[in-house]
């Protein structure tokens, strides 16, 4: 029977191998051996090349697009279950499909709920993730979910900048709770951006609720996709007299022409984690690794220890 005396085994989905290697290094165990075979039609098959019987297995993989990333996680969970692993934890630094957490119009799926059920059916006995798009997604699971906050690694960096006249900003009304949590630790004011969309990823109008003149503004969000909202907000704040604008976004999805938007915007710096690997380098993007945070939590979970010290928000 696997217990805290049995060494944990850490494996990586292909899209998160670099991060998984850092997690395994910080944890103090070698990354497990997985071989993925590919067929000519695009089908693939992951294979664990070591015994998992009776062990605690951590499978690291973010499920950002393409859908192959989610499929690979599901297949590895299924393979671990069929290999008689006793505990199977899906470590998902970025939980994809999370924006579809409710029916916002008729005849659409609740994809986040669907993904949760698929993960459990595939064999996950526990989920470890970070900065979900909506906290209530934890309730879609019947298995334990450890929902980590990237604030534990972002706040020390922000304090190291020694900025004065800080104001925390949320790029939309939905992120106000996150913004207020940061402002509590930094003892700063809060500004909210009110935006109207013409359609998904297209902003028709934006206004600021609050004062930014003479302030060093820090925009806080869980993810950056097209960077339209972020760059629009940054440009607007500079127009309203802000000294500088930085942004903290946990998950750098960065699709379309997001990199160009960031380079050509008033943003001084975009601070992200390595939950999703960057597609290209940028002088404006600062990456802070979440590997040590995940390694510490995984070790605590394996040893049945509390992880409450990892929750700043």
TrEMBL record:
One of the GO BP terms on file: purine nucleotide biosynthetic process
Name of the top EC class for this enzyme: transferase
EC number: 2.7.6.1
Catalysed reactions, semicolon-separated: D-ribose 5-phosphate + ATP = 5-phospho-alpha-D-ribose 1-diphosphate + AMP + H(+)
GO CC list: cytoplasm; ribose phosphate diphosphokinase complex
UniProt keyword Magnesium present: yes
GO molecular function, one term: ribose phosphate diphosphokinase activity
Xref: InterPro entries: PRib_PP_synth_CS, Pribosyltran_N, PRTase-like, PRTase_dom, Rib-P_diPkinase
Domain Ribose-phosphate pyrophosphokinase N-terminal span(s) in chain numbering: 9-123
Entry-linked Pfam families: Pribosyl_synth (PF14572), Pribosyltran_N (PF13793)
Keyword Transferase: yes
Matches recorded under CDD domains: PRTases_typeI (cd06223)
Keywords: ATP-binding, Cytoplasm, Kinase, Magnesium, Metal-binding, Nucleotide biosynthesis, Nucleotide-binding, Transferase
Designated name of the protein: ribose-phosphate diphosphokinase
The organism of origin for this protein: Psychroflexus halocasei
């Amino acid at each position: 029977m696997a217990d805290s005396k049995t060494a944990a085994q850490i494996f990586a989905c292909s899209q998160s191998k670099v991060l998984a290697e850092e997690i395994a290094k910080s944890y103090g165990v070698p990354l497990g051996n997985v071989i993925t075979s590919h067929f000519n039609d695009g089908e693939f098959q992951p294979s664990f090349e070591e015994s998992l019987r009776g062990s605690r297995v951590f499978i690291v993989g973010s499920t950002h697009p393409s859908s192959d990333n989610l499929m690979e996680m599901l297949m590895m969970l299924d393979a671990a279950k069929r290999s008689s692993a006793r505990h199977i934890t899906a470590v998902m630094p970025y939980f994809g499909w999370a924006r579809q957490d409710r029916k916002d119009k008729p005849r659409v799926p609740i994809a986040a709920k669907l993904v949760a059920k698929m993960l459990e059916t595939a064999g996950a006995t526990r989920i470890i993730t970070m900065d979900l798009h909506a906290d209530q997604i934890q309730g879609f699971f019947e298995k334990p979910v450890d929902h980590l906050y990237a604030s534990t690694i972002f706040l020390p960096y922000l304090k190291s900048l020694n900025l004065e006249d800080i104001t925390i900003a949320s790029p939309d009304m939905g992120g106000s709770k996150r913004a207020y949590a940061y402002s509590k630790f930094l003892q700063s004011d809060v500004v909210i951006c009110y935006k109207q969309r013409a359609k998904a990823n297209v902003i028709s109008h934006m206004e600021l609720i609050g004062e930014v003149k003479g302030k060093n503004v820090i925009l806080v969000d869980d993810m950056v996709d097209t960077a339209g909202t972020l760059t629009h907000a940054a440009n607007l704040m500079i127009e309203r007299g802000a000294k500088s604008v930085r942004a903290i976004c946990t998950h750098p999805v960065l699709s379309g022409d997001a990199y160009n938007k960031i380079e050509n915007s008033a943003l001084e710096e975009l601070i992200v984690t390595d939950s999703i690997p960057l597609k290209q380098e940028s002088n404006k993007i600062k990456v802070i690794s979440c590997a040590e945070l995940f390694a510490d939590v995984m070790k605590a979970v394996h040893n049945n220890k509390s992880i409450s010290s990892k929750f700043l928000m």
